[in-house]
């Protein structure tokens, strides 16, 4: 872990993988992506990033190149790795045997997980020992541009926005965590150490998941979400999900639950839509349609944990799609 140029393997070269690759390259890391075969040619051609700012909706392109591209665990096994970053969804983590094989192919590397489902860490601990696992919470929005044909940012490329004052939270065993934080800081990525990111992220993630389900149920329209009936249902689901996260991780929702009031939600949404350098409604629709399976996986987890905890979940159940209804 004392080598000067950390060798980093990023699993997944989507929006999140590209943004972390940009910062890790800036920090002087040797970066390689592990991608599906169908994405290899595009990755080998290099990527283009656009860093959005509050007043910067059409920034200049930043090329992302100078990285390796691998397509199989067999290729991964031939090299030595200091870090492995999981830049795929919670659903992708559970797909096939890939993760298990990768864990067996990457020696003593530090693994970095970024996924939002309540039981992702437990899932990973089947193959990665806790002594080598760092957990992170993503502080930025990233998407493939343009979001729509009318988007001012024409792309093509990956746009990202680091909201002012936001910090990526990371936790893990100090001998693994600190070199990683040093690297990210050297690359200009805003980070903060946290005692337990799974715990810290659990209540915000639960509330966000409920909000996404509520928004999806009204066809991704803020105007319809803010109507009294759908807002009450969504806020009810957010409270239920937060209580389940509290039961699962011990995190306290006390500071966030009072914010779940219609007047505050309306004001926050109005502010967020004014400040964000992206059409938030469109971003949420496109992003959470892309990771829709992950949202359903998270909902399934909340419903199952709610049942184990003896907590009522009428609002979450009301937002569950029919294919989950049978399993409630
Ligand atoms: N984007 C954001 O703003 C944001 C913010 C916070 C958190 N997150 C979270 O970050 C995670 C990734 O999001 P994202 O926006 O980067 O998604 P994305 O753009 O879809 O990127 C994920 C990439 O990983 C690929 N992939 C899936 N399984 C793989 C495997 N086994 N090996 C190699 N590559 C694989 C996917 O390919 P296919 O598409 O072909 O499957 C896709 O190209 C999600 O959990 C998301 O919720 C994202």
| Unreliable residue runs | none
Listed once per kind, the bound small molecules are:
NADP nicotinamide-adenine-dinucleotide phosphate
Q: What's the end-to-end separation, in Å?
A: 46 Å
Report the C-alpha radius of gyration, rounded. Answer: 20 Å
Helical run tally: 15
The major sheet is characterized as: 8 strands, mixed
Class of the largest domain, according to the CATH hierarchy?
Alpha Beta
CATH architecture of the largest domain: 3-Layer(aba) Sandwich
How many domains make up the coordinates?
Answer: 2
Domain Ketopantoate reductase N-terminal: 8-143
Protein name: Ketopantoate reductase PanE/ApbA family
Pfam families: ApbA
Description:
Pfam families: ApbA (PF02558). It comes from Melittangium boletus DSM 14713. This is Ketopantoate reductase PanE/ApbA family. Residues 8-143 form the Ketopantoate reductase N-terminal domain. The chain contains 15 helices and twelve strands. An eight-stranded mixed beta sheet has the order 5-2-1-6-7-8-11-12, with helices on both faces. Strands 4-3-10-9 form a four-stranded mixed beta sheet. The mean pLDDT is 96. 40% of the residues are buried. The chain folds into two domains: 7-195, NAD(P)-binding Rossmann-like Domain (Rossmann fold, 3-Layer(aba) Sandwich), CATH 3.40.50; 199-325. The protein is α/β, with parallel strands linked by helices. The longest helix is centred in the last third of the chain and has 22 residues, at 228-249. NADP nicotinamide-adenine-dinucleotide phosphate is lined by residues 11-12, 14-17, 34-36, 39, 87-90, 92, 98, 114-116, 138, 141-142, 287, 290-291, 294.
């Amino acid at each position: 872990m004392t080598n000067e140029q950390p060798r980093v393997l990023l699993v997944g070269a989507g929006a999140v993988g590209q943004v972390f690759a940009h910062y890790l390259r800036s920090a002087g890391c040797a970066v390689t992506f592990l991608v599906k075969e169908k994405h290899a040619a595009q990755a080998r051609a290099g990527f283009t990033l656009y860093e959005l700012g509050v007043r910067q909706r059409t920034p200049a392109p930043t090329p992302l190149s100078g990285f390796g591209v691998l397509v199989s665990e067999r290729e991964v096994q031939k090299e030595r790795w200091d870090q492995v970053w999981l830049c795929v969804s919670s659903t992708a983590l559970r797909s096939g045997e890939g993760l298990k094989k990768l864990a067996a192919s990457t020696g003593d590397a530090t693994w970095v997980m970024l996924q939002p489902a309540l039981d992702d860490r437990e899932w990973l601990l089947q193959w990665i020992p806790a002594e080598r696992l760092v957990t992170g919470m993503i502080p930025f929005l990233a998407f493939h541009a343009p979001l729509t044909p009318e988007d001012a940012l024409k792309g093509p490329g990956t746009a990202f926005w680091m909201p002012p004052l936001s910090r990526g939270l990371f936790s893990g065993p100090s001998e693994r965590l600190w070199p990683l934080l040093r690297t990210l800081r050297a690359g200009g990525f805003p980070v903060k150490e946290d005692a337990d990111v799974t715990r810290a992220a659990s209540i915000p993630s639960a509330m966000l998941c409920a909000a996404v389900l509520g928004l999806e149920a009204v066809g991704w329209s803020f105007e319809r979400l803010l109507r009294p009936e759908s807002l009450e249902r969504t806020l009810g689901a957010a409270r239920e999900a937060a209580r389940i996260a509290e039961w699962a991780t011990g995190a306290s929702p006390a500071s966030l639950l009072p914010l779940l009031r219609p007047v505050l939600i309306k004001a926050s949404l109005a502010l967020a839509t004014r400040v964000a350098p992206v059409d938030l409604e469109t971003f949420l629709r496109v992003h959470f349609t892309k990771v829709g399976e992950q949202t359903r996986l998270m909902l399934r987890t909340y419903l199952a944990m709610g049942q184990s905890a003896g907590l009522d979940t009428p609002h979450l159940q009301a937002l569950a799609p029919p294919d989950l209804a049978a399993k409630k």
